[in-house]
């Protein structure tokens, strides 16, 4: 375990123990990074500080109330995910969710990754995600990155019905897994 992972693990433990200083550390250490990371969202620039503060509160409540434990993920990525979801909800309310489609493919790939994915697995996923067909990339992006439901994807991407979306998503994931397994282990 690296020093950074160890420090993050200790910070998580302090948060679970309702340590207000740990909350302050998380807030201060990540504020500028998060503000810069989401600075392209000009339409919510005035709301970004509130979104960040609400996200910090959600993060803290998840650690204290649910005793959240990020196995191999870190607090910063978890916080970014919370902020991103709140931004999406805000944009959706404002009717501007199309702004999210401007995100880079690498950011879209991140959503597919959970907090327990290793760096090597993330690299493999990113490489092979880019090798998928455009339709698969779009489907996985809508489901995992934008968080759309099957029904919303059906409407947004003009699929025949919900079952078509489900089976297409399943095939895309299987294709992605197969490519990763072949490159990593030489198996299908």
Using brief descriptors, characterize the structure shown:
188 residues, mainly alpha, Rna Polymerase Sigma Factor, Chain: A, 9 helices, 71% helix, globular
Your description of this structure?
- The chain is globular, with a radius of gyration of 18 Å.
- It folds into two domains: 102 residues, Orthogonal Bundle (Rna Polymerase Sigma Factor, Chain: A); 86 residues, no CATH class.
- Helices cover 71% and strands 0% of the residues.
- It has 188 residues and is mainly alpha-helical.
- The longest helix is centred in the C-terminal third of the chain and has 24 residues.
Summarize the topology:
Elements: H1 3-16, H2 20-37, H3 48-65, H4 75-94, H5 105-112, H6 119-131, H7 134-145, H8 150-156, H9 162-185
Helix pairs in contact: 1-2, 2-3, 3-4, 5-6, 5-7, 6-9, 7-9, 8-9
Mean pLDDT: 79
State the shape: globular
Encode the helix/strand succession as letters: HHHHHHHHH
Fraction of residues in β-strands: under 5%
Q: In brief, what are we looking at here?
A:
The protein has about 190 residues and is mainly alpha-helical.
